[in-house]
UniProtKB/TrEMBL annotation:
It comes from the Bacteria. Residues 39-151 form the SHSP domain. InterPro entries: A-crystallin/Hsp20_dom, HSP20-like_chaperone, Small_HSP. Gene3D superfamilies: 2.60.40.790. It holds the Pfam family HSP20. Signal peptide: none annotated. Belongs to the small heat shock protein (HSP20) family. This is Hsp20/alpha crystallin family protein. It comes from Marinobacter lacisalsi.
Length: 151
């Protein structure tokens, strides 16, 4: 299953810098470079579990407090993308926040699909803040024998 996620160590370093900046009230480091970067930056990333059965791969993403309308799942060129946005609750003048630890904003997770996944049979289910994706395994394609004529 290690072939499902592309890891970019630069993103983790930039995330650390952005957390530091956010803590001290400084602007994020991705200001002018946002449009030029190859990787899209997001505000947070939901926790994901990936498991494999005989028939399928199952991806479960924790999306507490979100609605299914706020989440988009796409597949393109063998890459599964889960993206969306968790919106912050409206603040009223009567509220007095003592601590805010939950993260709000957009997110994006991408997973490279194994060759044996049938992209047309992916099923999604959203229940109680958990997005479950079932990726049915396809039968491996049989190699074709090509007869070579010798002159």
């Amino acid at each position: 299953m290690s072939n499902l996620t592309r890891w970019n160590p630069v993103n983790e370093f930039e995330d650390l810098i952005n957390r530091y900046n956010r803590y001290f009230g400084l602007p994020a480091t991705n200001g002018e470079r946002e449009g030029k970067d190859l990787f899209r930056r997001t505000d947070w990333a939901p926790a994901v579990d990936i498991k494999e059965t005989k028939e399928a791969f199952v991806i479960e993403a924790e999306l507490p407090g979100m609605k299914k309308e706020d989440v988009k799942v796409t597949v393109h060129d063998g890459v599964l993308t889960i993206q969306g946005e968790r919106k912050k609750e409206e603040e009223t003048g009567d509220d007095k926040h003592h601590r805010v630890e939950r993260v709000y904003g957009s997110f994006l997770r991408r997973f490279t699909l194994p060759d044996n996944v049938d992209e047309d049979s992916i099923r999604a289910r959203f229940k109680e803040g958990v997005l479950s994706l079932t990726l049915t395994k396809a039968e491996p394609a049989e190699p074709k024998a090509i007869e070579v004529a010798v002159d």
